[in-house]
Amino acid sequence: xxxxxxxxxxxxxxxxxxxxxxxxxxxxxxxxxxxxxxxxxxxxxxxxxxxxxxxxxxxxxxxxxxxxxxxxxxxxxxxxxxxxxxxxxxxxxxxxxxxxxxxxxxxxxxxxxxxxxxxxxxxxxxxxxxxxxxxxxxxxxxxxxxxxxxxxxxxxxxxxxxxxxxxxxxxxxxxxxxxxxxxxxxxxxxxxxxxxxxxxxxxxxxxxxxxxxxxxxxxxxxxxxxxxxxxxxxxxxxxxxxxxxxxxxxxxxxxxxxxxxxxxxxxxxxxxxxxxxxxxxxxxxxxxxxxxxxxxxxxxxxxxxxxxxxxxxxxxxxxxxxxxxxxxxxxx
Length: 332
Known about the structure:
The chain contains 12 helices and 9 strands. By secondary structure, the chain is an alpha+beta fold. It has 2 domains: about 90 residues, Phosphorylase Kinase, domain 1, CATH 3.30.200; about 230 residues, Alpha-Beta Complex (Aminoglycoside 3'-phosphotransferase, Chain: A, domain 2). Helix 7 packs across helix 10, helix 10 runs antiparallel to helix 11 and helix 11 runs antiparallel to helix 12.
């Protein structure tokens, strides 16, 4: 309640008094909270971000917002900021996420817009302005899988052979991930963070952006934890991105088969991480709703592991850890 009072007082001072209402705008997997500020029909609504400074870094949000805006994509405008208290006042990109709007009829247009925006972000990339998505960070993310999904959610303890299999699989993924060309990476470029607005898409939740593997954001978009498409559509969209990237001069692999292998191995790293994050959100933070999205993420991971000989041992390990997940709803 104390935090709510702080926000109310800050908004009153920032908006110069007058009547306004505050309603929750969206959930978030972090400690950030978002509120929609309405000031009557004559004025557009705004979004207040509440990011406790001891837990969240508003400065990084502002930094990435400026980088992405300069790249020519649609991110919230910053109307006011109070970094000491951890409050930002942003333009409102609306109420309709890609997840709300995507269907067979809209997918081509919406994904086309999302791919074009991703290309603009990547074309603006340069080293030294965002944190590196380096081996330490990628490896830390991978270990969320044994620490939270295996140990906490499944209540399993890996034996020495299983742990060796997992570490060898991690090494294979990291070798590929770190060898990929590097660009700006949003790091959560998916249907819940893309808004249907004008221009489309509006892009949210970019404060954890890094400089890293070129396929990462494409995997986030096409192997989305919250919406499934058949493999033909995913491959078609991946080809469309790859062709546009080559035309634009981005350093993607010259052969699509090599590019798609990079895409899939990057996806396996992300899927292992996401399984761990969703388990942590549930068992540490009490956000149990994310558990329902794990089966889709696991299906992505299993299918990739079964396609590549170097990941066959990881596929067997997944079966050993939780055979009930095998092939449940396996087709798309």
